[in-house]
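We close this part of the discussion by returning to an individual protein. In the encoding step, the backbone of a single protein was reduced to a row of integers, each denoting a local shape. The sequence in question and its structure tokens are set out directly beneath this paragraph.
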Amino acid sequence: MMTVNIFTTSLVSVAIVAISTADQLPVVVTTWAVSGFETATDKAFDALLDSGSRLNAVEAGCSFCEDDRCDGSVGFGGSPDELGETTLDAMIMDGETMDVGGIGQLRGVRHAIRTARAVMEKTTHTYLVGDAAANFAVEMGIPRQSTETPESTARWKQWKAGNCQPNFWKAGTVDPDPTKSCGPYKPLGSRNIRNGTKYRQWAKLGDHDTIAQAVIDSDGKIASGTSTNGASYKVHGRVGDSPVAGAGSYARSGDGGCGATGDGDVMVRFLPCYQAVENMARGMSPRDAAVDAIGRITRFYPTFGGAIVVVNARGEHSAACSPGLGKSWRYSYRSGSMQEHAVAEVECNSLQG
């Protein structure tokens, strides 16, 4: 593994990858560069070489993290919701056809990215959610398996014992006071509801994030995908940005691909991956495209935590992250004739525009 050098601008630090243009394809880029996510990069790249299929590559990379439970934020046995259930969101997108398959609130089935791909390839729909998505998965030959573990249940019980803190309910809108007590909650009258909400700081690494990958094959055809078990102690029924095309990831052959991680409840409102790919289609470099997309979010949510990794049709890649994620953020990639993944790092400076 190697870590590339960093080039700093006044807005953000970006990785300058010392690979010739002719040797940049195929390429895989992956959110995060910690144990598991880096291996997922290699799994995706090896699947691409073995099968020649960009979709197989995305499925292989995301599936590895689902089975390995990368950082506890992907796959079964992580991020219990407020009822103690672990639910999964995933999405896969073919940038050549613009077909998408997504699933949300999947429980009782561990293979989320495989289920999402079945939605894309076996139906004319884009998304399936909840128990119906699990039933569909079983119909497609994917086995039922518990998405909870003794560890996730113990973690949920500890949270309950701490008066369900923190949580995702707005103070002053429900009773009892969600900043002090567990539910069930009842709504307060509209006269008690304050306009506007102070932004909740994104949780630390491990509380929730996502594997998102963008893959370009040797012919320049692009695919992307995501998988996550969402935010810890989320309101039961919540679906984040990961299964939403343009938010969790996006792919469009001829223009580029993108993967996102961070506070999905905020990111889904801005479709940062769609924006980044559209920026590249309009001539922006991957660096500028990523900075612009994240800056559109920090304009409204200055302390929000999130990042995107982007790659253009030539295989050139970069990233941007917001200050709420920390001082810097790392992603992993592999391209051309590289024998293993490498790591790039960006600084999370102010991106308000």
